[in-house]
């Protein structure tokens, strides 16, 4: 007969102690339950128990403070932390102090039993005590079950260097989560470097990522340091990875396989020392099927996937987020505002195609434009109607080419995460214009390169060369 395992439960809520004792007892465990941290600590010191389940807020001590102490005296004793606070920081602290698992309340008893069984059987691994990240610099807001799950995953990932792939619609917080992984992770004293594949002309991506030697290509007047080198010791955030051109994908795959890279035009391998976090709003599996994304690269990057839910899937977070964004607007110098119930209800009904970013922009507009201190449902409805995509599309239809280019350029510049100055702006912008222009001319002439060249006022050979350089599809048989 196997010996029954003893589980120590600490929670000042009697109802929780009862429920846990019953469920664990039924599952065949011996349970000792207490309402105080002091009693739990005494049991631990006396060598009692095979597993601890503790609440955070208890009258005499914070359960989270107990975790490192328990780990010091009995490193093999696993601790499961449960909390009704359910904030991102609770999850991060639990992970960094060495808790085996963190359970936001309320939780499913079945899930708890699964965690208990895992905690009692999982092979022992030395969990290094993490130096704790201080402060609440970067709040991730939301108490929905979906966000809780994300906090748990992100918290666990702060104690590792694993590659992470974040997916989610535009504005769901992909960049914010990548920053959280860095700011609370092991590499937080190193740099956080972001590069957006969609904002850089395709032909420059490799040199942006890996750097280039002097003379590696026309215009490379001096050696350029790439983002891999800039991010050494820190985190490299590859935003919009789904937009990476094929040659750069191949090169990145090689770097991930070999752990080193060479600059464009260079020969000496340089050790890659970055944690990679990639993000995309695209469906990469579909891109793989369409032959646009390398499957082997996908598996290298998709080590730990995190899917950020759209706002409409977690409507219960909207009031909290809205208040957070109003506070942020106030901190940025806009007037402070409150939302009445009607406003909150109206916000919850909206479908939020632009997700948290759309909500943030709306809160800023309300703070800036409405004189009253308490915002009502009508004001919200008005502003939402104003921002209707239809209205936006109409505005765009009457836009002049110059206005459209200006709009595009400002978002291009805004997308440069490190801010200006960007290098080679003139060339980059022209390259951005060249591709659609040539595509348009080729489409209009149904692929006839002679006609397209005439239309563009370009020499035929120049057009051919550009088509090759820009990797534009050639429709054969029509030219
Ligand atoms: N859970 C959250 N809590 C607080 N702020 C959030 C949250 N999610 C998103 N935000 C805020 O919403 C805005 C958009 O987030 P972010 O830029 O991270 O989205 P994204 O998914 O990277 O968007 P895109 O794909 O368009 O680049 C940011 O200002 C961010 O701080």
TrEMBL record:
GO CC, alphabetical: cytoplasm
Modified sites of kind 4-aspartylphosphate: 55
UniProt subcellular location: Cytoplasm
SUPFAM superfamilies: CheY-like, Homeodomain-like, P-loop containing nucleoside triphosphate hydrolases
Recorded GO MF terms: ATP binding; phosphorelay response regulator activity; sequence-specific DNA binding
Task performed by this protein: Member of the two-component regulatory system NtrB/NtrC, which controls expression of the nitrogen-regulated (ntr) genes in response to nitrogen limitation. Phosphorylated NtrC binds directly to DNA and stimulates the formation of open promoter-sigma54-RNA polymerase complexes.
Keyword Transcription regulation: yes
UniProt-listed NCBIfam families: ntrC
UniProt cross-references to CDD domains, sorted A to Z: AAA, REC_RcNtrC-like
Matches recorded under PANTHER family: DNA-BINDING TRANSCRIPTIONAL REGULATOR NTRC, TRANSCRIPTIONAL REGULATORY PROTEIN
UniProt domain Response regulatory: residue ranges: 6-120
Gene3D superfamilies: 1.10.8.60, 3.40.50.2300, Homeodomain-like, P-loop containing nucleotide triphosphate hydrolases
Keyword terms: Activator, ATP-binding, Cytoplasm, DNA-binding, Nitrogen fixation, Nucleotide-binding, Phosphoprotein, Repressor, Transcription, Transcription regulation, Two-component regulatory system
GO biological process annotation, one example: regulation of DNA-templated transcription
Residue ranges constituting the Sigma-54 factor interaction domain according to the UniProt record: 140-368
Upper classification of the organism: Bacteria, Pseudomonadati, Pseudomonadota, Alphaproteobacteria, Acetobacterales
Membrane-spanning intervals of the chain: none
Originating species: Teichococcus deserti
This protein's name: DNA-binding transcriptional regulator NtrC
Main location: cytoplasm
Alphabetized Pfam families for the sequence: AAA_lid_14, HTH_8, Response_reg, Sigma54_activat
Keyword DNA-binding among record annotations: yes
